[in-house]
Structure formats: C-alpha cells, structure tokens
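Schema walk-through. Below, the input block comes first and the output block second. Nothing else is stored per chain. Lengths vary across the set, and this one has 175 residues.
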Amino acid sequence: MVDITEISAMVAAAGVLVGVVYHILDLKHNTRVREIEKCRVAFSDYISEQAIGKWATMMNMQWKDNKDFMEKYGESNPEMVSKWTSWFFAWEMLGILLKNKVVKAEEVHDIGGYSAIFAWEKFKDIIQVYRDNTVWGQDYLSNAEFFAQEMLKIKMKKDATFKNKWEAYKKTLKA
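--- output ---
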C-alpha cells in the first residue's frame, strides 16, 4: 500500500519535472525572441528608405580605375565615402553575427542580405586597394567579404536561375 509520504514524493517529483520542462520551453522561446530582436536591430537601418537610397547611389557609382575611384569616392569626398563604407560596415557587422551564430544566414538572406553579393563584386578590387595601401591591413572588411560569400552560397542554392544572372552581372562590371 502506498502511504502519504510516497504520494507526496511523487507529486513533488512530477512538479519538478513540469517545472524543468517549462523552464526549457521558456529558454527556447526567449532565445528565439532574442534572435528575432537581434535581426530587427541589425536590419532596422538596413531596410530604411535612407539606407536603400545610399545603396542605390553606391551601386550606381562608376569609375575608370582605382585612381578615378579614389578621386571621386575616397576619403577626399566624405559624403560619397560615407555612402559606400557605411554599407560595407553593416555587412561587416552581419558577417560577425553570422560567424558567431547570433543570426541565421538564411534568415538574413531572406530579409535582403543578398544585396551584399552584388556590392562585393563591384567593390572588391577597391577594397583590395584599401587592404594593400592603407593602415587597415589585409583583414579590412573581411567579415563583409565572408557575409557576401555566404549570401552568394544561399542565393545559388535557393535559385537555380541565379547562376546565369550572376555571370551576366559580373560581365557588365568588366565591360
């Protein structure tokens, strides 16, 4: 026969079990909420009208060679250098967040992270000039590069037609 002490012990054990399950579910929920909040904060400026205008300006920049770029869009032109570098620093931050698994690559891609793909291809030679000729060093914007490469992998995986479009885009940059 079961006495009151054993019943009490079973009820207490069940209560602890329910508490542990609740705590695990609560932690999982709070972790997801934090992930969403981090994405929201990271992308709050990224998706603004002002940011998209800066991106469009940056993607419409044209130059003949590295010297021409530096004259038009380098540090001697603070307004223009801020347009393109602010985007690369945003991608730098997102690259760090991806590497540290703070955000998920596919989610970041789906909310516009793929925009880094085109910009990286367009500016990679300029960034290499900065790496070679300034005090910034060879790791300058390396997390932005990582971010763009991760976005490219996802884009290629998600969209079978993208490869041809990507090759065509790269040809327009070389023309």
